[in-house]
Amino acid sequence: MSPDPALPIRHRTFPVRMIAGCLLAAMLLWNQPAFAQQAHQHDRMPNVMEYLDRLDRPERDQEQKPTLVVEALGLKPGMQVADLGAGSGYFTRRFVEAVTETGKVYVIDVEPDALKYVEESLIHLHRPYNAEFILARPDSPKLPVESVDLLFICNTYHHLDEQVTYFRNLKSAFKPGGRIAIVDYYHDERSGELGFPKHHLVPRDRVVQDLAAAGYKLVKEHTFLPKQYFLEFTLE
């Protein structure tokens, strides 16, 4: 019998240590660049696990600058972070280390194989961690009420439908002072050659407009990523 999709897949605390994507794994194109999740949401790649492996290639670090991203977020032990569209766990593993076992990371994806991939990679880190794996719906990450200090979304915003409604419905998931961080590719020449059409990418200004319409305000913008905007929002 299939598991109830309305329930988190698993909640564990294991020994772990750190390795190296972010994507909404069910939205992949198997022949796109390995450093990000870039596919149209209705396309499925033939080998999810092979793609996830490619997402963790060390070369990705050159443009994604994950250490700087995590530092900019100011994560501290004990914080609770949601990695929406966790994919291969590229950022999940870094969040686990930043918040330690005293905090918690919600690992969220619509692809069950991606969640299993991340769980196995956390186990192989051989250090304590606290993570909950959530099989999301396309219209909801299914986060508990007042559960997160930070919702992190990398290269996934442009895959979401009806973004204003999506984020308006997410308000109850934030603790007081909670934030949203959105990293995604520029839709124009600033992102350079990505190896896939840019027509489905969402311009930075429209993201700001969407989040404002959903009840959030832009509080910080980081400019060190060469091909992506990096925005932080809080509730109005």
What does this structure look like?
The protein is built from seven helices and eight strands. The model is unreliable at 1-46 (pLDDT under 50). It has helices at residues 48-55, 61-64, 66-73, 92-99, 112-123, 163-168, 204-214, and strands spanning 10-14, 80-84, 104-109, 129-135, 148-154, 174-185, 216-222, 228-235. 24% of the residues lie in helices and 24% in strands. The longest helix has 12 residues, at 112-123. Strands 1-4-3-2-5-6-8-7 form an eight-stranded mixed beta sheet, sandwiched between helices. With 236 residues, it is an alpha/beta fold. It is globular and about 40 Å long.
**Helical stretch count?**
7
Strand content: 15-25%
Query: How helical, in percent, are the residues?
Result: 10-25%
What's the count of strands?
8
Low-confidence stretches: 1-46
- How confident overall, as mean pLDDT? 83
Largest sheet composition: 8 strands, mixed
Q: From N to C, what is the helix and strand string? A: EHHHEHEHEEHEHEE
Strand order of the largest sheet: 1-4-3-2-5-6-8-7
Quote the distance from N terminus to C terminus.
43 Å
Derived from helix and strand composition plus strand pairing, the structural class reads: alpha/beta
